[in-house]
Amino acid sequence: MRQGPKGILARLAASSGVAAVAGAAWRRTHSCAPPSGCSFEEIASWPSDLNAVWKSCRDDFHFALARDARAVQDLHPASQSRLHRYVLRRGNGLLGWSAGLFTQMRESPYFGNLLVGTILDALAPPEHLDALLAHTYHGLRELGADLIVANYTHERWRGRFRRLGFFNGPSNYLLALSKPLAAALGPGPNALDRAYMSRADGDGRLNL
């Protein structure tokens, strides 16, 4: 297999230790430390109060597939063994929830043999989103993930991920819209900025 200039540079960076130094510097300036004041836990099955989170978020979306209790249970069922379900609470109140995948890749054309964590889905109102994403990131890191990925259309989620130290990168995860839906979202490249779509929608999880 032919190796291009980028591949050669990547190998040199890895062997010289430059990549490790650069990674450490990035983590120092982009803190992923979970904030205090709330509890975060992994659960075996979804609680009954998921509807409250959906009601607190849905009016802010120009478009989204339902994330009420029934939809979440269908999207992320207990039968999926690689799925990790998380909830963020303050006292007895549910602030947000997330779903993560943890996968040992085997000769993947994209990930090689890395342990890959995916923040598959995550829903919380703006004031609790930072805490939810930071805790979910740390939850997957504690499982041993070498790399954590996420795919979201909404500008708020993308902005919060950047603040946590995530890099933007190319993706072959495509979204095809019908003409009426595309027209309803409006023209231009930023039409999806207020639409909530994640890797959990469609067949996005199949290669993860």
SSE topology:
Blueprint: H1 5-16, H2 18-29, E1 39-43, H3 50-57, E2 63-64, H4 69-75, E3 83-90, E4 93-104, E5 115-123, H5 126-142, E6 147-149, H6 155-163, H7 179-185, E7 195-196
Parallel strand pairs: 2-7, 5-6
Antiparallel strand pairs: 1-3, 3-4, 4-5
What does this protein structure show overall?
With 208 residues, this protein is α/β, with parallel strands linked by helices. It has a single domain, classed as Gcn5-related N-acetyltransferase (GNAT) (Aminopeptidase), CATH 3.40.630.30. The chain is built from seven helices and seven strands; from the N terminus they run H-H-E-H-E-H-E-E-E-H-E-H-H-E. The strands form two sheets. The chain has a five-stranded mixed β-sheet with strand order 1-3-4-5-6, with helices on both faces. Strands 2-7 form a two-stranded parallel sheet. The protein is globular. The relative contact order is 0.15. The N terminus is likely disordered.
